Each structure stands twice: as C-alpha cells, then as structure tokens.
Amino acid sequence: MKKTYSKIKANTGLTIKSDKTNGLNIGSSILSNTTPIIKSIILMILTAATLFSFSTFAGDLNHCAIKSHSCQFYQCAEESFQCGHSGYFQAFATPYCSLFLSDSFLQKNSNQAQAWLVDVAACLQQAVKESAADNNNMTCSQVRLKAIQAHAQCYYKTGFCQIPRNDRMRLVGVLIKDTWNDFDILKQGLEIQMLCGPQWQQNFDKE
C-alpha cells in the first residue's frame, strides 16, 4: 500500500494519507498541490461539465409536464428559456391558455367546444415541447414563431372545424381583439380557414 501511495504522490503531486475512517484522505487544497498538467486536465473537465449543463438545460423541456386542463407547462418553459414579460410564454401563451381553460369561459361554450379547448391546449403545449427537443439552441423569437405556427394544425387536428359556429365565433372574437395586427397569427387564421373551409361549406349547403 505504501508503494501505491508513493507512486501516486510522485505522478500527481497529491498528498494522500492513511485515515482510520475513510482509508484515504485527500488534502483539501487539491488544485494547489497538483502538477500543472494534472491541474489543466481538472480545469478542462470542470469547464466542460459547466458548459454541458448550461446547454442541455437552456432549451430542454423534457422536465416540463403537460397536464390536462392546465397551463403550468408554460411556466416551466419560461423558467428554461427566460424570455421575459414580452416573450411568448408570459405575453401570449399563459394569458390565453388561462382564459380559455377558466371555468367562466368554458361554461359559455357547448360541451363539444369545452372538450376541444382542453384538447387544443395540450396540443399547443406538446408542439412547443417537440420544437425545443428538435433544437436546443432556439432563441425566444424562434420559440414564439414555432409556437404560433403550430396553431392551425393543432386547431384542425383537435376538431376546431366541428365545434358549433357560435363557439368558434366567440373564440375568434377574443383572439382578434388583441392580435388583429399580428401578421404571424393572422396567417394561422387564414390557414385554419383553408383547412376547415370545405367542411364549413358542406355544413352551410345542408342548412
């Protein structure tokens, strides 16, 4: 055992002593006792670990849970991206999600529309999560654009075309009031119109 200690000390400069409790006791000032080469290696490892930790957390939303009838996902996403008060999560996603899933708003709609509001909220959150998984280096502007661009497909897939017309008009009335001058959102409105248009025309013809 003494020979092993001697070799370690000779190669690294570390002072290692026998200890009754732990067997080995490495001095508290390891870096100060190491050779320049070993010190450089240790610093490189610490630096790489720090950078890796930052890069994987910045846009990683795997730890953010998507729950039915909940908007908490956006709070978790904001903590990761930190886009601030003017960013997508705080300025758009959370306010509208909270409004549309509130009991007071849900009760104004038919049962079919209520189920759709819950489903589309989960779809939009999942779209953000998948976008973040595809690109961990997204900027806040890119996050917003990707999230907005997911609206038309989420609306369509979750059955927006089938909910009663009065419910659709109520929803559009809320959105258009504050977003009428947002080109990206207006584009999504036009895409929804194109996706649902044929079905709405058929329903109109039947009436």
Beta strand % = under 5%
Low-confidence stretches: 1-31, 45-57
How many strands appear in the DSSP assignment?
Answer: 2
Q: Average pLDDT across residues?
A: 80
Order of helices and strands: HEEHHHHHHHHHH
Radius of gyration of CA atoms, rounded to a whole number? 28 Å
Tally of DSSP helical segments: 11
Describe this entry's structure for a reader.
The chain has helices spanning 2-12, 30-33, 36-58, 72-81, 88-100, 103-106, 111-134, 140-149, 151-157, 165-179, 183-206; strands at 16-19, 23-26. It is mainly alpha-helical and 207 residues long. The protein has two domains: 2-58, no CATH class; 72-206, no CATH class. The protein is elongated and about 85 Å long. Mean pLDDT is 80; it is low at 1-31 and 45-57.
Brief overview, please?
The chain is mainly alpha-helical.
List keywords for this structure.
mainly alpha, two-stranded antiparallel sheet, disordered N terminus, 207 residues, 11 helices, 2 strands
Secondary-structure map with pairings?
Elements: H1 2-12, E1 16-19, E2 23-26, H2 30-33, H3 36-58, H4 72-81, H5 88-100, H6 103-106, H7 111-134, H8 140-149, H9 151-157, H10 165-179, H11 183-206
Antiparallel strand pairs: 1-2
